[in-house]
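Hi everyone,

Forwarding the result from last night's run.
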Amino acid sequence: MASFPSLLESIDDLSLEQIEVLVSRSQHFKNNPQLSPFNTITPKPIIATSFLENSTRTKHSFGVAIGRLGGLYLDFNAETSSLKKGESLEETFLTLFHQGVDLCVFRSSVSNQLNQFKESPPIKLVNGGDGVNEHPTQALLDLLTLLELSPDLKGKTISIIGDNIHSRVAHSLMNLLPLYGMKIILSGPKEFLPDAATLPANVELLTDRDETVRRSDFIYLLRI
């Protein structure tokens, strides 16, 4: 894909055209599992997951997907790596790059930790969730699911219910779904809702659960 960012930290790093290409290719490979895009590439790309925060669903979803698409998967264990001996994150990424890793999926409990590499990424990087900032790949997967349920999302309302202040995927969805004409309601106890003054015009807040459900075409539940 032309001009695809070497560091995907946020939904804002992608143009609508790039998002549509990702959705189209995802649908294609999901519907044609016998086709592996990396089968014709020699050597096969090596893709690593580097998770500095515990994860089950996201980490293993990446591992399974890489295998199904025909890539080589490397599980980089930060707990037993040289990060524990004082090596910097940049040095670690450079080591992986020079060992032949083509792309690294990175997760951290620290928000915006990848921002330091925006100008010159030491390796191709994908944000697998950082602190309370964003989780762009989960948002893209959610978009694919929504499109499978309703190919035309324009004018539809999705309510995101739960701890919207700390949810990184909610932050990514707020950047992504309006590109497809969706309206967003953030719902939950007021302690879990952001300041209304910080929200774009197409996002509103509701604390009334019943009204939220009545006005929703889709409901998205967050854990606390």
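The radius of gyration is 19 Å.

Cheers,
N.
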